[in-house]
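re: that chain from earlier
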Amino acid sequence: MGKTIIDKIWDKHVVRSQEGYPDVLYIDTHFIHEVTSPQAFAGLRKRGIPVFRPHRTFATADHNVPTKNQHLPIKEALSRHQVETLIQNCKDFGIQLYGLGHPNQGIVHVIGPELGITQPGTTIVCGDSHTSTHGALGAIAFGIGTSQVEQVLATQTMLVYRPKRMKIEINGSLQKGVTSKDVILYIISQISAGGATGYFVEYTGSTIHSLSMEARMTICNMSIEMGARGGLIAPDEKTFEYLKGRDFAPKGDAWEKAVDEWRQLRSDPDAQWDKVLTFRAEEIEPMITYGTNPGMGMGISQAIPENEVVPTSQESFDKALRYMGFQKGEKLLGKPIDYVFIGSCTNARIEDLRMVAHFVKGKKKAPHVNVWIIPGSKRVEAQARQEGLDKIFEEAGFELREPGCSACLGMNEDKVPPGKYCVSTSNRNFEGRQGPNARTILASPLTAAAAAITGVITDVRTML
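^ sequence. v structure.
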């Protein structure tokens, strides 16, 4: 019987397996940041244990960092303490840190692929749920808890049960104005925020294979938002072309050997799946969310349903609408908004910024809307400035800031005020996610840019 790509990579990394128990899984690459690592390092100190393979761990500061004046001391006391603790821990344990001021600093799930640290066929973990982003390059990548961060630091392995396997196949051509963000929001709206719980997902089909590498990262990034352990896309020639020449990618003969191995990384035709879902690209329109989880999404021309369309309680559905200030049966087209946030590990790569700049060139934002553009890394920021995107944003009234997680989550200075509506390219619309009582509407960079220009929720297809 054939194997899935998930099983092929998993089997290669199992150190020990015993029925009824979790596998001991070897981890190739471990990413850490300032939020979920302090307790893990404290545990190592308490037990007098070193980091087993420090060269396998890479650190960056992203969640707590400000996105303005990063050359100055961090104002928020807790954020400053978190970042300073990361600096000290990396110094004490010999770990490579891309901290503030370093040319490689950025959001952890942006810098991994752009530096070539993320590679096909590897196992990757981080104390961050959106580690599944790295699966776009054909890796098994998933988020872990703080106790597991300590496990990996101490042993370069972890205890984890093998997940079930799900295949999601999308075929066909996307409509104009529909992006990879719309694709994943559509899938989540169809199967719910818990529809892939217990599974690891392989995305495949002609639609997926037509996407750029950065678009694939957006798809894999939000796998966790439907409950999946992670998601991946089999590597192909686009993957190899993307990786070639990057800092940590193999060089010379080692490169040719690596590519030969990576070409074998695909599911066998007779592989067995626990669940298979298929979708047509033509049925997807620009998406927005109307509730307080990513599964509460709809096509931008549609109306909010009268009842919850995925398995959850009616009470939670009604509560979400009350929080958002929306009504059942209401269309959101034309709804005034206050903020637009373009950034996060979902949509802060150079292609996202280029997409927005191309759309807004020669246009001006609505006077009442605040627009924040937050690049995913210092490299993305430098590239945007080199290409003159910063000038386009400035002329449109958009504010291009410095890299960080920013308004994706309320852990830094970039918070959306209470009661205000923010059209966001991030991955979560939970209550208070972008600040206490902030109201988040998830969308693609194009839909967010359209809202910034018009000041209301807009079908971007009418402006293309």
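The chain has three domains: 5-160, 164-283, 289-463.
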